[in-house]
Design brief:
Layout (H helix, E strand, L loop, with lengths): L2 H27 L30 E4 L5 E5 L10 E8 L15 E6 L2 E8 L2 E8 L2 E8 L5 H13 L6
Antiparallel strand pairs: 1-2, 2-3, 3-7, 4-5, 5-6, 6-7
């Protein structure tokens, strides 16, 4: 085999590896499949969704009419706290005095460079909240359905991937 043939085969092989990696990366950028039934109802243009929702529990998506609050519930058409597995919200600006004065988060982590998420928990529900690109994001989850590690992975994918656009 000549050096030219070897170089061509190496380049082609690397090209396949690179395009395979790019295809995998592009697939991760999409919202998790569980959100597909409600994607057309999302109205904020800067909405971020997890790329993966790691659970074996069957979840049902729903969205509030204004499109800024999404639920994954353990029962169809249920938005009560008892059946909420995951709630994702976005607002165009953070609430006043955020992070809430007098309600210090239990801890803070860096999701990506320059994006710090604050953690709160109460009565079996936990929440990661952060500001990114001048918008306020909240991901609240049921601690009996998702581990903290899974929740951090979901929040990180939300902060890392570009916002969902139609």
């Amino acid at each position: 085999m000549s050096a030219l043939q070897f170089g061509f085969k190496l380049t082609m092989g690397l090209g396949l590896v690179v395009s395979s990696v790019l295809a995998t990366t592009a697939a991760l950028a999409a919202p998790a499949p569980v959100f597909e039934p409600i994607l057309d109802d999302i109205t904020p243009t800067n909405f971020r969704l997890p790329a993966d929702v790691p659970t074996d529990v069957v979840l049902y998506p729903s969205i509030l009419p204004n499109g800024g609050l999404l639920f994954l519930s353990t029962e169809p058409d249920c938005e009560d706290i008892e059946c909420t597995a995951l709630m994702v919200a976005t607002e165009s600006e953070p609430p006043p005095l955020w992070p809430f004065i007098g309600a210090n988060p239990f801890r803070t982590i860096d999701l990506v460079d320059g994006v710090r998420a604050h953690f709160w928990e109460r009565q079996g529900m936990a929440s990661w909240q952060w500001i990114q690109d001048d918008a306020f994001y909240v991901m609240t989850y049921n601690q009996s359905i998702f581990s903290e590690e899974a929740a951090i992975e979901m929040a990180t994918s939300m902060a890392t991937e570009p916002p969902f656009t139609r």
